[in-house]
Amino acid sequence: MQNAGAELLLFNAIRQGDEKALEVVFLRYYSLLSRYAGRLLKSEADGQEVAADVFLTFWEKRQSIEIKESLRQYLFAMTRHRTLRRLKTNGRVPGSLELTPETVKEYEENWIDEPADNVDHLAVYINQLPPQRRHIFELNKIEGLSYREIAQRLGLSERTVKNQVYRAMLQLKGLSVVLFLLYSKS
Question: pTM score, two decimals?
Protein backbone atom coordinates (compact mmCIF):
# COMPACT_ATOMS: atom_id res chain seq x y z
CA MET A 1 0.00 0.00 0.00
CA GLN A 2 1.41 3.38 -0.94
CA ASN A 3 1.14 6.71 0.88
CA ALA A 4 -2.06 7.54 -1.02
CA GLY A 5 -3.57 4.29 0.24
CA ALA A 6 -2.60 5.09 3.82
CA GLU A 7 -4.12 8.56 3.48
CA LEU A 8 -7.29 7.06 2.02
CA LEU A 9 -7.46 4.62 4.92
CA LEU A 10 -7.15 7.48 7.39
CA PHE A 11 -9.74 9.57 5.56
CA ASN A 12 -12.24 6.69 5.43
CA ALA A 13 -11.75 6.11 9.15
CA ILE A 14 -12.37 9.82 9.78
CA ARG A 15 -15.45 9.71 7.58
CA GLN A 16 -16.75 6.89 9.82
CA GLY A 17 -16.20 9.06 12.91
CA ASP A 18 -12.84 7.71 14.09
CA GLU A 19 -11.37 10.47 16.26
CA LYS A 20 -8.02 8.66 16.57
CA ALA A 21 -7.60 8.81 12.78
CA LEU A 22 -8.36 12.53 12.90
CA GLU A 23 -5.73 12.87 15.62
CA VAL A 24 -3.15 11.17 13.39
CA VAL A 25 -3.98 13.50 10.47
CA PHE A 26 -3.97 16.50 12.80
CA LEU A 27 -0.54 15.60 14.17
CA ARG A 28 0.76 15.08 10.66
CA TYR A 29 -0.53 18.28 9.06
CA TYR A 30 -1.42 20.91 11.66
CA SER A 31 2.07 22.36 11.91
CA LEU A 32 2.47 22.49 8.12
CA LEU A 33 -0.91 24.14 7.60
CA SER A 34 -0.44 26.68 10.38
CA ARG A 35 3.01 27.65 9.03
CA TYR A 36 1.58 27.93 5.51
CA ALA A 37 -1.31 30.16 6.61
CA GLY A 38 0.88 32.08 9.06
CA ARG A 39 3.38 32.91 6.35
CA LEU A 40 0.65 34.18 4.04
CA LEU A 41 -1.08 36.13 6.83
CA LYS A 42 2.24 37.31 8.27
CA SER A 43 1.06 36.18 11.70
CA GLU A 44 1.87 32.89 13.41
CA ALA A 45 -1.16 33.17 15.71
CA ASP A 46 -3.52 33.82 12.78
CA GLY A 47 -2.00 30.87 10.94
CA GLN A 48 -2.65 28.60 13.92
CA GLU A 49 -6.23 29.85 14.12
CA VAL A 50 -6.80 29.16 10.42
CA ALA A 51 -5.32 25.66 10.69
CA ALA A 52 -7.49 24.87 13.73
CA ASP A 53 -10.54 26.14 11.86
CA VAL A 54 -9.65 23.94 8.88
CA PHE A 55 -9.56 20.84 11.06
CA LEU A 56 -12.81 21.74 12.80
CA THR A 57 -14.57 22.23 9.45
CA PHE A 58 -12.94 19.07 8.05
CA TRP A 59 -14.34 17.04 10.98
CA GLU A 60 -17.79 18.63 10.83
CA LYS A 61 -18.14 18.11 7.05
CA ARG A 62 -16.33 14.75 6.83
CA GLN A 63 -19.43 12.95 5.50
CA SER A 64 -19.77 15.25 2.48
CA ILE A 65 -16.09 15.69 1.60
CA GLU A 66 -14.80 14.11 -1.60
CA ILE A 67 -11.03 13.75 -1.87
CA LYS A 68 -9.95 13.88 -5.53
CA GLU A 69 -6.15 14.17 -5.30
CA SER A 70 -4.80 13.47 -1.84
CA LEU A 71 -5.76 14.25 1.71
CA ARG A 72 -2.71 16.48 2.07
CA GLN A 73 -3.59 18.45 -1.07
CA TYR A 74 -7.21 18.78 0.09
CA LEU A 75 -6.18 20.17 3.50
CA PHE A 76 -3.76 22.64 1.89
CA ALA A 77 -6.52 23.79 -0.47
CA MET A 78 -8.90 24.29 2.47
CA THR A 79 -6.20 26.28 4.26
CA ARG A 80 -5.55 28.41 1.19
CA HIS A 81 -9.26 29.23 0.84
CA ARG A 82 -9.63 30.10 4.52
CA THR A 83 -6.50 32.26 4.38
CA LEU A 84 -7.69 34.05 1.25
CA ARG A 85 -11.07 34.70 2.87
CA ARG A 86 -9.38 36.11 5.98
CA LEU A 87 -7.14 38.38 3.89
CA LYS A 88 -10.14 39.71 1.95
CA THR A 89 -12.11 40.23 5.16
CA ASN A 90 -9.23 42.25 6.60
CA GLY A 91 -9.06 44.38 3.46
CA ARG A 92 -5.67 43.05 2.41
CA VAL A 93 -5.51 42.08 -1.23
CA PRO A 94 -3.33 38.99 -1.47
CA GLY A 95 -0.77 38.21 -4.09
CA SER A 96 -0.91 34.82 -5.68
CA LEU A 97 -1.97 32.04 -3.34
CA GLU A 98 -1.59 29.47 -6.06
CA LEU A 99 -1.33 26.00 -4.59
CA THR A 100 1.05 23.88 -6.62
CA PRO A 101 2.98 20.74 -5.72
CA GLU A 102 6.06 22.98 -5.41
CA THR A 103 4.24 25.24 -2.90
CA VAL A 104 3.20 22.26 -0.81
CA LYS A 105 6.75 20.83 -0.99
CA GLU A 106 8.17 24.15 0.21
CA TYR A 107 6.17 23.93 3.43
CA GLU A 108 7.07 20.27 3.95
CA GLU A 109 10.82 20.60 3.54
CA ASN A 110 11.46 20.84 7.28
CA TRP A 111 9.07 18.07 8.25
CA ILE A 112 9.90 14.73 9.87
CA ASP A 113 12.50 12.38 8.46
CA GLU A 114 12.41 13.54 4.86
CA PRO A 115 12.47 11.94 2.36
CA ALA A 116 10.65 9.12 4.16
CA ASP A 117 6.98 9.85 4.68
CA ASN A 118 5.84 8.56 8.05
CA VAL A 119 2.33 7.85 6.85
CA ASP A 120 3.97 4.82 5.22
CA HIS A 121 4.43 3.38 8.72
CA LEU A 122 0.70 2.73 8.69
CA ALA A 123 1.15 0.53 5.63
CA VAL A 124 3.85 -1.47 7.41
CA TYR A 125 1.49 -2.32 10.26
CA ILE A 126 -1.38 -3.19 7.95
CA ASN A 127 0.89 -5.38 5.83
CA GLN A 128 1.73 -7.40 8.95
CA LEU A 129 -1.87 -8.58 9.22
CA PRO A 130 -2.58 -12.12 7.97
CA PRO A 131 -3.40 -11.98 4.22
CA GLN A 132 -7.16 -12.67 4.39
CA ARG A 133 -7.61 -10.38 7.40
CA ARG A 134 -5.65 -7.62 5.64
CA HIS A 135 -7.73 -8.02 2.47
CA ILE A 136 -11.02 -7.84 4.39
CA PHE A 137 -9.75 -4.89 6.45
CA GLU A 138 -8.72 -2.98 3.30
CA LEU A 139 -12.05 -3.71 1.59
CA ASN A 140 -13.87 -2.31 4.62
CA LYS A 141 -11.65 0.59 5.64
CA ILE A 142 -10.10 1.68 2.34
CA GLU A 143 -12.76 0.83 -0.20
CA GLY A 144 -15.59 1.50 2.24
CA LEU A 145 -17.49 -1.73 1.56
CA SER A 146 -20.01 -2.93 4.13
CA TYR A 147 -19.67 -6.26 5.90
CA ARG A 148 -22.49 -7.61 3.72
CA GLU A 149 -20.83 -6.48 0.47
CA ILE A 150 -17.51 -8.03 1.50
CA ALA A 151 -19.21 -11.27 2.54
CA GLN A 152 -20.96 -11.51 -0.83
CA ARG A 153 -17.80 -10.66 -2.77
CA LEU A 154 -15.63 -13.21 -0.93
CA GLY A 155 -18.23 -15.91 -0.30
CA LEU A 156 -17.98 -15.59 3.49
CA SER A 157 -20.53 -15.05 6.22
CA GLU A 158 -21.12 -11.51 7.46
CA ARG A 159 -20.13 -12.68 10.93
CA THR A 160 -16.75 -13.90 9.64
CA VAL A 161 -16.13 -10.57 7.92
CA LYS A 162 -17.11 -8.64 11.04
CA ASN A 163 -14.82 -10.82 13.20
CA GLN A 164 -11.88 -10.35 10.82
CA VAL A 165 -12.28 -6.55 10.83
CA TYR A 166 -12.59 -6.60 14.62
CA ARG A 167 -9.45 -8.75 14.97
CA ALA A 168 -7.54 -6.47 12.60
CA MET A 169 -8.56 -3.50 14.72
CA LEU A 170 -7.35 -5.32 17.85
CA GLN A 171 -4.00 -6.01 16.19
CA LEU A 172 -3.70 -2.36 15.21
CA LYS A 173 -4.99 -1.13 18.59
CA GLY A 174 -1.67 0.29 19.74
CA LEU A 175 -1.07 1.96 16.38
CA SER A 176 -2.43 5.36 17.41
CA VAL A 177 0.18 5.54 20.17
CA VAL A 178 2.94 4.53 17.77
CA LEU A 179 1.80 7.06 15.16
CA PHE A 180 1.54 9.76 17.80
CA LEU A 181 5.15 9.14 18.77
CA LEU A 182 6.26 9.11 15.13
CA TYR A 183 4.42 12.29 14.18
CA SER A 184 5.16 14.27 17.31
CA LYS A 185 8.92 14.24 16.60
CA SER A 186 10.10 17.54 15.23
Answer: 0.53
